[in-house]
Amino acid sequence: MFVIRLFRQNPIPFAHPHTPSNRCFCYSKLRDHYAFESPPSLSPKPPPPELKPRQNKPLKPRYKPPSSLDLADKKPKHSDLPFDFQYSYTETSLSVRPIGLREPKFSPFGPGRLDRKWTGVCAPAVDPKVSSLESTEDPKLEEKRRVMWENIQGEPLTGAERKTLVETCQKKKTKRQINLGRDGLTHNMLNDIYNHWKHAEAVRIKCLGVPTVDMKNVCTQLEEKTFGKIIHRHGGFLVLYRGRNYNPKKRPFIPLMLWRPHEPVYPRLIKTTIDGLSINETKEMRKKGLAVPALTRLAKNGYYGSLVPMVRDAFLSCELVRIDCQGLEKSDYKKIGCKLRVMVVSLMPLCNYS
After folding, report:
1. Which residue did the predictor score with more confidence, 65 or 217?
2. Domain boundaries, the chain
3. 24-61: buried (b, 16+ CB within 10 Å) or exposed (e) per residue?
4. Which of 232, 279, 302, 305 could link 166 by a cystine bridge, Cβ 3.0 to 4.6 Å?
5. For 314-336, what is each residue's pLDDT tens digit?
6. Burial of residue 87 (number of CB atoms within 10 Å: 0-12, 13-18, 19+)
7. What positions does the domain CRM occupy (predicted)?
8. 126-179: per-residue pLDDT in tens?
């Protein structure tokens, strides 16, 4: 007790271990007998390391979206694909000629990007030596397309290979998918399909909207324009196979459309007077059509693959069929009506659309 009180009354100043003049018995005893080390806070701090001057990295250039004006002076690229370039390959009918254009014939590829001339509707694949674009298509293109398809596909798939490819394209296996919507098979979608084929032999395509009324046309256009083969179809889901001899490094050049061209002016879908009927008879027929209960109601961006069989069966018991299209865009039910008129019966203008 006395020693403790003495230390409290006369505290011994703490001295640095490297100063012999101020060295005390208390510190030497702790250091010699108990290997005492002073805490880091009391030990002298080493000098901070010299910081190297930071080299300023060059700033990245600001993002500049691509413009057709930047490509105007460059040499146009050439594409050897043996078919006409259109915005949509499933929503335009070559049998129906437009009666006018809504804008001048500005190419959607941009000025100077493609050696094919734009007619306002498409860029036709004609012989470069032809002076007029209104001439017929090169007769060698069809044979060239068939030979190219056979060379890429190679030997047909076996049943086991087909089943394996279809399994790898299911939703539970992969999330890779291409959506084919109300515009149909667009030109830029061809480039998306080739990008998917870099990583997989087959790609899953989901079809919704107006093109599903005629799924046969969708499948035909996909095979003709991509040179692939559809190996599975379930409703609006397709599996497109690229072929045994497909080489991503030798893929054809597909110029991208920078904007969507305006739709041409086509003839009216519904005529004022139906062929074979007078004006009064046509009005009476349309009034009866409005009183007919709707056969079905079409949902927006739905699957309409069963619409044509339904209309055909309804015509067996009734001369008028009404389809409720109130949830669709105006341009959509016009396209559906045009498809039904061609696919169901030639007297389709008798039908009314609400």
Report:
1. 217
2. 2-7+264-349
3. eeebeeeeeeeeeeeeeeeeeeeeeeeeeeeeeeeeee
4. 232
5. 888 888 888 888 888 888 888 88
6. buried
7. 155-253, 275-354
8. 766 666 655 556 677 788 888 889 999 989 999 999 999 999 999 888 888 999
**Per-residue pLDDT at 119:** 87
In order of 27, 67, 80, 153, the CA distances from 73 in angstroms are 86, 12, 22, 38
Report the predicted TM-score, pTM, of the whole model to 2 decimal places.
0.72
Could you identify the residue written with the tokens 């390391």?
Answer: 49
One-letter identity of residue 34:
Y
Second CATH level (architecture) for the domain 2-7+264-349? 2-Layer Sandwich (3.30)
Q: How confident is the model at residue 197 (pLDDT cuts 50, 70, 90)?
A: very high
Give the residue, 240 or 281, on which the prediction is more confident: 240
Judge contact between 138 and 126, C-beta under 8 A: yes
d(CA 212, CA 223): 16
* Residue-level pLDDT at 133: 57
**pLDDT given at position 275:** 75
Cα separation, 91 vs 182, whole angstroms:
9
Which residues, at least 6 apart from 235, have a Cβ–Cβ distance to it below 8 Å?
Answer: 303, 305
Which residues, 6 or more positions from 351, have their beta carbon under 8 angstroms from its beta carbon? 289, 320, 321, 322, 323, 337, 340
Q: Return the amino acid letter for 230.
A: I
Give the per-residue pLDDT at 92. 74
